[in-house]
TrEMBL record:
This is JAB domain-containing protein. Gene3D superfamilies: Cytidine Deaminase, domain 2.
Amino acid sequence: MKFSPTAWAKLIYLRDAGPTEVGGFGISSADDLLYVEELVLLPQICTAVTVSFAEDAIADYFDQQIDRGLKPEQFARIWIHTHPGESPEPSPTDLDTMETSFGECDWAVMFILAREGKRYAELRWNRMQHSRMRIKTSIDYQQPFAGTDYAAWQEEYDENVVDQSQKWTDLMEPDELWEYGDLFDNPHSILEFNA
């Protein structure tokens, strides 16, 4: 599996845009279905350990991509999300999502990017015999780099990602928050606490 330099730069930017997981789909080349040319976020509610797409987000995304003339195997087979910590290993929820959401597809890929560039990619093959295997990933630096568009990437993030990572604090009394004060002084410790 390969990423275009621009898709990879965008994924790193989105991973670091907030304290939560972020999810979307890779759009691949018609000539190479494991070559990610674009990354698209869907409307989602996120925490440090979960991504939940909005109710109609996937149906709307499918309609948009079909209107562009793309086939489902180009835009709906590579599920990409981030982990805000250092581990790219899939959680039980990630594995369950692959089973329930992609179990009827001929094939699908789950790709996870964590901090420090750590990554995990798994190909799920559902033809004839069901199998799962880890696959290698790389960035295709032989291709031209279209450049960064931080403003557009941030706008896409702001429009689609609802951060619910600290929602549990709303349920605590002020004296209970005091007990966890050091977590709020260091946002990285919040992630470690929730992970």
